[in-house]
Amino acid sequence: MTDFAALLAADRGQSARPIHLVDKDSFGDWVRRRPAEDRALLEANRFDGKTGYARVVLPRGNAFEVVSTVANVDDLSPWCLAKLSDSLPEGTYRLAEGQPGKAALGWLLAQHRFDTFKSKPEDAERGPRVLVTGEAAAVDPAVRLATATALVRDLVNTPALQLGPAELEQAVRDRLSGTGADIAVTKGDALDTGYPLIAAVGGAAVDDRAPRLIEAEWGKPDHPRLAIVGKGVCFDTGGLDLKPGSGMRLMKKDMGGAAHALALAWLVIAARLPVRLHLLIPAVENAVSGAALRPGDVVKSRQGLQVEIDNTDAEGRLILADALAKAAEAGPELIVDFATLTGAARIALGPDLPALFVTDDDLAGQIEAGARQADDPLWRMPLWDAYDEMLKSDVADLANASGSPMAGAVTAAMFMKRFLPDGLPWAHLDTFAWRDSAKPGRPKGGEALGLRAVFAALQNRFTA
């Protein structure tokens, strides 16, 4: 993984090339203060401080300065320096005025590449671009956020051939190694009896691809208990309700919820938040074989509810139901889960906005405030009790999917809610974990969506 700590440095008087940031309101005053040769060069490049992203290199003998446009010099976004970081020559830079703040994230992530499977990495010969900040205390948090985001991207981008349930288990062990977290894995007969929904969904896969529940605990036992749960479907064929080829193409990313959960757990530990952390990742492959779950089957859940399988492609909510039930048994103060759960959420909100479902208005407000604070948008959706009837079954306590094409994201969340006790604060993020097209600092492929918002909310909640 990229060494982000080498790309962001505290200001200790080191030599650095200045970066001047301007916007449409500040450009006029700024340019009037520049030397005549600078004004001539800016005019020759038709640089007006307001035409989208633009930058001009201003020569200074054997060195140079940089001027670049941003949307608002007084409120830098996380991504306003990403294009510069990706395009400037290697070297050390600092903002001529102000501090990078949130923009440090884009500077760091713009230099990250997922090139594990390329024989000739694109940037093999290119050196780093280091950003200097006077806010020394901001270096470590920015590096941690970049590291966590890159972890999500790398895990989601990894093909299923190289990332099955066993490899996902190893990823948890590797990332939490040295943190003091205790890791436990349930599989085989113990999974069959203790977590029957997880076992049933993953039952068609064998050997290293056999299903398991991965758990980690960290922190002092007397601290408030926080459970983080992530959907770990390492590949989703749809099961016997087989997806078409177009729908299966990106299903390596169906463990994106697990990637978010692991990254969030690591951020909580790295920040030493005063919580008793419980991470739960049900890891399966929704495969096809003679042992595959069948439409019409009835499986008794860990919590005790009997579930009729209406659709084997509605598998994520099944494995999460058992994991949520286990998390609730320990009496947590709150539970947060991430899942690449429904296409309905993407139809409603598009790829950029995770759908947020929350049982507690105060918790919803905290997460929405965290989203604004971190510039990591999401959108609250309703847990509409009237739609619970869409999950009725003629032969069991409930079905895992609705026969209606409507409200798919809501009914999925309502299904999961049935496995939690009333009154327990719970937040569910139905996230895409993917970017279909590239933007500065955000390449096409796996993406962390909602991670920074929830982490900001947890920081505010547990350190206030």
From TrEMBL:
Residues 311-318 form the Cytosol aminopeptidase domain. Keywords: Aminopeptidase, Hydrolase, Manganese, Protease. GO terms for biological process: proteolysis. GO terms for molecular function: manganese ion binding; metalloaminopeptidase activity. It comes from the Bacteria. SUPFAM superfamilies: Zn-dependent exopeptidases. One of its GO terms (cellular component) is cytoplasm. Belongs to the peptidase M17 family. This is Leucyl aminopeptidase family protein. It comes from Sphingomonas sabuli. The lineage of its organism: Bacteria, Pseudomonadati, Pseudomonadota, Alphaproteobacteria, Sphingomonadales.
